[in-house]
Amino acid sequence: MNNLDNYLEQDAGTAAKEIRCLYNLKKKQEESIAQGDFSKAKLIGVDILNSLNELEFLRERKMNHDSLKKVAIDLENQGPDGCCGETRI
Fold first, then answer.
1. How far apart are CA 27 and CA 6, in angstroms?
2. pLDDT tens digits, residue range 16-51?
3. What's the pTM?
4. Is the Cβ–Cβ distance between 3 and 60 less than 8 Å?
């Protein structure tokens, strides 16, 4: 299963739901293909794509959050004058 550390804590539940949904949709799509119902299989494919897009969005949100957090820490470490705590003349 997918690593939920790839998502913000507040998004972990949504991500887990989407991951479970993907596995269920994959099984349903395989069944539709086996039964020759290609129209249904294609519609399920759209649902799969929607779930993948949501997971990608949630993962990118985490990556953006982590990047912003790093910038904030770097700025804080630079000190109030923006130059590593040294006084400018």
1. 24
2. 999 999 999 999 999 999 999 999 999 999 999 999
3. 0.79
4. no
